[in-house]
Design brief:
globular; 5-stranded mixed sheet; single chain; Immunoglobulin-like; alpha/beta; Rossmann fold
Length: 313
């Protein structure tokens, strides 16, 4: 006997564009010709971006002030190399956002240790943590699960606001980097569990344990490997992971945020997946694109897709 699952109606979705502005330690200076010019703290960097197919606004002279330029390899998402532009390539340096300081580094995959467009989600998670903290009964702090947590910005910010955080990433290097960021931020005493594990396997175990969380953040890659060789493919394993995430939330929970990069899946597909998994849980499901706002022109540069379930819209 088949069971009908209550899912969102396609006509009910109004996509939302979340545009992150710069802050003291970050700004998107310009973009175009398949690249973007950014300032991270004291350094200006020139990185590829396949979305930026328009013409740059700033002059080539301004672009030449970059301290380093990333040159991609043969594959779009593969490893490449950084080229110092007439000066010494930047060594690791600090980037601050609110009470958190992280160490930015030039990596072989063009990333630096943080994704500035996630600012819009950091702020929403912080607001939810603060709201939960005000409404809590007893001494139990709000609980946050950060899957595919990378270097920890989305773990350290809620921890600084009083949340109890579980941070999961399959990379030992990323976990070490995140723990170093914890020390740099003066949060060594914050209640954070650092777990090097396959995110999908960890979530499944948490379901069997009967665990629950107030907030879940997940930023899965298109493809990856766990510490024991587990293979992650977004299109194949995301539905089950979302089902497990739903089981880790309940009527008292506040929020789930899913982001997705470099995927052939559409925003509507991701919205439908979350809708199917959360069909029995009251709340609002919002989906859309994330973007960064250029400092000089105000133009948005699209970066990724997202879906958010929240108790309150």
């Amino acid at each position: 006997m088949s069971r009908r699952i209550r899912t969102p109606r396609e006509g009910a979705l109004t996509p939302e564009i979340l545009v992150a502005d710069g802050w003291a330690d970050y700004s998107l200076l310009d973009s175009g010709d398949g690249r973007k010019l950014e300032r991270f703290g004291r350094h200006i960097l020139d990185r590829p971006d396949t979305q930026a197919i328009w013409s740059p606004s700033l002059s080539s002279v301004r672009w030449s002030t970059a301290d380093a330029r990333f040159l991609a390899g043969r594959e779009e998402d593969g490893a490449g190399r950084w080229e110092a532009t007439g000066r010494r390539a930047p060594e690791p340096w600090p980037i601050a956002y609110g009470p958190v300081r992280i160490e930015a580094q030039l990596t072989a995959f063009r990333h630096l240790g943080l994704f500035p467009e996630h600012q819009v989600h950091w702020n929403r998670v912080l607001a939810a943590v603060e709201q939960r903290a005000r409404a809590r009964v007893g001494n139990e702090p709000p609980t946050v699960l950060n899957l595919f947590g990378y270097t920890g910005m989305a773990s350290l910010l809620p921890a600084a606001a009083g949340a109890k955080v579980t941070h999961v990433d399959a990379s030992k290097k990323a976990i070490s980097w995140a723990r170093a960021n914890q020390e740099m931020s003066g949060l060594s005493a914050a209640p954070i569990r650092w777990i090097c594990d396959d995110a999908a396997r960890f979530a499944a175990r948490e379901v069997r344990r009967g665990s629950r969380y107030d907030i879940i953040v997940l930023d899965p890659p298109k493809y990856g490997r766990g510490p024991k060789g587990e293979v992650w493919r977004l299109e194949e394993q995301l539905p089950q992971l979302l089902t497990d995430c739903r089981a880790l939330l309940d009527q008292r929970s506040s929020m789930l945020i899913l982001t997705a990069y470099a995927t052939h899946l559409s925003m509507l597909t991701l919205w439908r997946l979350v809708g199917d998994a959360f069909a029995d849980l009251d709340g609002t499901i919002t989906a859309g694109e994330m973007a960064l706002r250029e400092e000089t022109t105000g133009r948005p540069l699209p970066t990724s897709l997202y879906v958010r379930w929240s108790r309150d819209a």
